[in-house]
C-alpha cells in the first residue's frame, strides 16, 4: 500500500467524493491496495470513473444511494448495496453514528492565499463526513476550480495528501429528443419570471433549460449544476436578484458538466457550493418563496405517486434529492413541485401513466406533487380529489392508453 493510504485499515468505511470531485488517483490506489484493507466499505454518490469496478468486490464492499453513472455497473453485477434514503439524510446518519466514517477521500485545490484548499465542484456530503473526525486523505489537483461556500478546508486537516494534476471528469448535457422538447414547452409555462428553480439532469433537463430562455430574473438553487443551467446564467436569464435568501448567488452542492462550466466556476463570486444539508434542507427550501422544483419520473400512477427508480423490475435510478425538493417546494410560499416525463416508453408500447406503480417503491408521495407534465399537457393535482387526479392524469397520458386507464380507474 502507498504511504498516502497507510492510515487505512481492514474493515474501514471510506467516504469518497462524487462526480467530478471523485479523487480518482486515490480510488485507483484503493483498488490496487484492496487486499490490505479487506472488508472495507466504499461509499460514493454518483461515480463517473472506472477506478473501482466489480472485480474489486473480492475485498471491498460498495455502498451508495443510487445506481447512477458507473455505479449502475456495480449494481447490475450484484456488488452494490443501496441505501434507500434521500441524499439530505446521509449526513444525519454519519453525525449520529448510525453509519461509521473512518476515512474521507477528497480532491482539492492547492492552498489559496487564505491558507485553505477548496473542494471545488463538490461540497455535498463531504463536510459532514469530515466533521465526524475521520482521517482525511486528499488528492491535490491544480485543475480543481476554487469555489466559495462550504468547500474550504485547511491542509493541516489532511492526514495524508498526494499532488496529482488531472483534468476533471466531464459530464456534458444529454441531447434532448423531440418529445423532450414538447414536454419542456409545457413545463416552461408553469415557471414564473423571478422564480428560483431546481432542475433534474438528462435530455429532458436540457430541453427545459432551453425552453426558459425567454424568462426573466430566474434564480438557481439546485441539486446538481449542469451546463444548461450555467447557460441560463450566461444568457442573463438567471440573475438570482429576486431570491429571498442567497440573493445574487447560484447555490448547488455539486457542479458537473463540461470543462467550460468548470472554468466558469473557478473563483466565481456568484457561485456558492454548499453542503447538502443546506441545499436540500426543508428549512432552507421553505424560505425560498416561488421555489419551483422540476424533477423527472419513470412512471406516475393515477394517485399521483412517483417512481423515479425502477423501470419494470430493473433498478436504474436513485431517490436522490427528489423527495427533498418536492417537499420543499410544497412548503415554500408560492412554490411548485413539478414532475415531468414522457407519456410512454420510447417504443410506445408501455404507458408511463399507470393505474398503480409497478415497482416496489414510491420515490415521492402524492402529497408532494403539484403538477405532472407530459408532451400531452399538464395535470394540475393541487386540491384534486382522488377521482379528479385520475381524470387529469389520464388526460395527459398517451392517447392509445387512455381507454384502458379509464376502465382501470373505475376500480380505484
Task: Describe this structure as you would to a colleague.
There is one protein chain. This protein has two domains: 3-163, Glutaconate Coenzyme A-transferase, CATH 3.40.1080; 178-409, Acetyl-CoA hydrolase/transferase C-terminal domain (Glutaconate Coenzyme A-transferase). The protein has 13 helices and 23 strands. The protein has helices at 24-32, 71-76, 90-95, 126-130, 178-188, 203-211, 227-234, 259-265, 276-279, 282-285, 322-331, 386-395, 402-409, and strands at 13-16, 40-44, 60-64, 80-82, 103-108, 117-118, 135-140, 148-149, 152-153, 158-163, 196-199, 219-220, 250-252, 271-273, 291-296, 299-301, 306-307, 310-311, 314-315, 336-340, 353-354, 371-374, 377-380. The strands form six sheets. A seven-stranded parallel β-sheet has the order 4-3-2-1-5-7-10. The protein has a six-stranded mixed β-sheet with strand order 12-11-15-20-22-23, with helices on both faces.
Q: How much strand? A: 15-25%
The largest pleated sheet is described as: 7 strands, parallel
Q: What Rg, in angstroms, do the CA atoms define?
A: 21 Å
Structural class designation: alpha/beta
Q: What is the count of β-strands?
A: 23
CATH topology of the largest domain: Glutaconate Coenzyme A-transferase
Instruction: State the CATH superfamily name of the largest domain.
Output: Acetyl-CoA hydrolase/transferase C-terminal domain
Amino acid at each position: 500500500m502507498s504511504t498516502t493510504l497507510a492510515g487505512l485499515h481492514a474493515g474501514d468505511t471510506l467516504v469518497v467524493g462524487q462526480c467530478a470531485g471523485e479523487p480518482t488517483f486515490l480510488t485507483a490506489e484503493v483498488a490496487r491496495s484492496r487486499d490490505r484493507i479487506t472488508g472495507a466499505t466504499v461509499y460514493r454518490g454518483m461515480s463517473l470513473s472506472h477506478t473501482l469496478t466489480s472485480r474489486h468486490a473480492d475485498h471491498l464492499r460498495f455502498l451508495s444511494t443510487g445506481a447512477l453513472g458507473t455505479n449502475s455497473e456495480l449494481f447490475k453485477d450484484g456488488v452494490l448495496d443501496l441505501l434507500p434514503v434521500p441524499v439530505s439524510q446521509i449526513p444525519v446518519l454519519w453525525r449520529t453514528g448510525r453509519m461509521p466514517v473512518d476515512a474521507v477521500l477528497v480532491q482539492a485545490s492547492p492552498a489559496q492565499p487564505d491558507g485553505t484548499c477548496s473542494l471545488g465542484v463538490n461540497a455535498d456530503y463531504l463536510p459532514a463526513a469530515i466533521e465526524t473526525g475521520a482521517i482525511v486523505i486528499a488528492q491535490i489537483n491544480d485543475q480543481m476550480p476554487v469555489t466559495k461556500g462550504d468547500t474550504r478546508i485547511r491542509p493541516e486537516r489532511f492526514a495524508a495528501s498526494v499532488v496529482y494534476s488531472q483534468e476533471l471528469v466531464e459530464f456534458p448535457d444529454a441531447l434532448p429528443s423531440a418529445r423532450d422538447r414538447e414536454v419542456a414547452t409545457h413545463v416552461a409555462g408553469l415557471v414564473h419570471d423571478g422564480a428560483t428553480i431546481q432542475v433534474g439532469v438528462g435530455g429532458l433537463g436540457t430541453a427545459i433549460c432551453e425552453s426558459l430562455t425567454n424568462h426573466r430574473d430566474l434564480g438557481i438553487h439546485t441539486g446538481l449544476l449542469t451546463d444548461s443551467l450555467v447557460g441560463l446564467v450566461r444568457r442573463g436569464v438567471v440573475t438570482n436578484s429576486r431570491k429571498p435568501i442567497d440573493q445574487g448567488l447560484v447555490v448547488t452542492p455539486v457542479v458537473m458538466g463540461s470543462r467550460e462550466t468548470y472554468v466558469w466556476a473557478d473563483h466565481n463570486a456568484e457561485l456558492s457550493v454548499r453542503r447538502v444539508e443546506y441545499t436540500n434542507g426543508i428549512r432552507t427550501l421553505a424560505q425560498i418563496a416561488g421555489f419551483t422544483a422540476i424533477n423527472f419520473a419513470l412512471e406516475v400512477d393515477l394517485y399521483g405517486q412517483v417512481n423515479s427508480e425502477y423501470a419494470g423490475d430493473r433498478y436504474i435510478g436513485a431517490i436522490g434529492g427528489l423527495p427533498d425538493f418536492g417537499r420543499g417546494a410544497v412548503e415554500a410560499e408560492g412554490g411548485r413541485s413539478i414532475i415531468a416525463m414522457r407519456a410512454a416508453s420510447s417504443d410506445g408500447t408501455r404507458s408511463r401513466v399507470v393505474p398503480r406503480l409497478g415497482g416496489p417503491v414510491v420515490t415521492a408521495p402524492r402529497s408532494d406533487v403539484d403538477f405532472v407534465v407530459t408532451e400531452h399537457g399538464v395535470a394540475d393535482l393541487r386540491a384534486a380529489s382522488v377521482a379528479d387526479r385520475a381524470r387529469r392524469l389520464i388526460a395527459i397520458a398517451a392517447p392509445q392508453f387512455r381507454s384502458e386507464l379509464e376502465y382501470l380507474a373505475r376500480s380505484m
